[in-house]
Amino acid sequence: MPADQSTPHISAFRKAALTCPIPPAVELIGEKWAFLILRGALNGLRHFEEFQAGLGIARNILSDRLGKMVAGGILQRDADPSDRRKVVYSLTAKGEGLLTVVLALRQWGEEWGHGAPGVILADGRDGRPVRKICVQAHDGRPLRLHDLKWVDRDGASTALPTAAE
Amino acid sequence: MPADQSTPHISAFRKAALTCPIPPAVELIGEKWAFLILRGALNGLRHFEEFQAGLGIARNILSDRLGKMVAGGILQRDADPSDRRKVVYSLTAKGEGLLTVVLALRQWGEEWGHGAPGVILADGRDGRPVRKICVQAHDGRPLRLHDLKWVDRDGASTALPTAAE
DNA sequence: CTGTTAGGTTGCGATATGCAACTAACTACC
DNA sequence: GGTAGTTAGTTGCATATCGCAACCTAACAG
Q1: Of B52, B60, B92, B143, which is least surrounded by CB within 10 A?
Q2: What DSSP designation does B128 have?
Q3: CA-based nearest residue to B155, from A123, A73, A34
Q4: Left (φ > 0), alpha (ψ -120 to 50) or beta: where does B131 sit?
Q5: 165 residues of chain B, pLDDT tens digit each
Q6: Which residues of B touch A31 (CB under 8 A)?
Q7: Distance to chain A for B60, nearest Cα, Å
Q8: How many A/B residue pairs have CB atoms within 8 Å?
């Protein structure tokens, strides 16, 4: 009994999930501490003890997460030349690419009442706050969820609905 | 003895963390399955069995996560009028707001080699792919991490570095 | 050489996860 | 209207992960 016949969009979803970049990405940063470590790194935390004191994370968990994020290419692990006991964890280009994700989450939390932050991210040049991150069309128009559809690589639309009502 | 004297940016970080929207947001969606459930919801999954079959998640975990996301105001839980056994989980406006986060993560994964997706999100009007999400200045200029700084609510810059080298 | 700091690792109890089986409503069929 | 099947869970149990505290080693500082 192929259950797929009665559920075309589920089988489309499963097929799309096979090549979706989200599951592997979630494997790397989709857990509580990874996100907070990332936020710390974006805010200038660099040493093991800084992360530990700044986040209040257990040392063994921090050690494990830093190792995984280094293995995943998000962080870089270097010896501090000024003190050979110290290790500097810095963001790689790949790790910096997560800025949009972290900022989008931050703005979402801000908008939906999970606490208004005391500091705001601003343009270093003129000090004006950054824009709210949004999904944009090719010409820059902001797009809502209803304005979107999924298309195949060649441009044909697919069976995947976008949260259709 | 205040250890803060030797670590000014850590104490600035801890102070900023108190009102940061990220930790509560992470509490809600910062775990493996919450992200994937959200992706499913954005792709049109609506019923318990659809999520279960589509994601391969254990039923008790799914039940727990759906409940938490409903409690957090991300999902809405309604009875299906056409079949009173069924329950429809749909995104609230708050949940739809997470589209930017999920899409940013997806684009990041795509860019950094975690699998190229077979389907692409496009503008429903003209079928052209959406832009890459990025941080923008007030005038729309794209900004990198080095171009940014933190400012206080009143516009004064703070002690928080932005991943300074 | 002694004390301290940085960055871990180890042991252990608490918590979360995943699988399979069970239940309680409801629907569809005959 | 009795029976089978579907939907949305819950429960029990084995395993994996988490967090805390303590311990460890290498590198300083005096």
Answers
A1: B60
A2: P
A3: A123
A4: beta
A5: 333 445 778 888 888 888 899 999 998 898 889 999 999 999 999 999 999 999 999 999 999 999 999 999 999 999 998 899 999 999 999 999 999 999 999 999 999 987 788 889 999 999 999 999 999 999 999 999 999 999 988 777 787 788 765
A6: 30-32
A7: 19
A8: 332
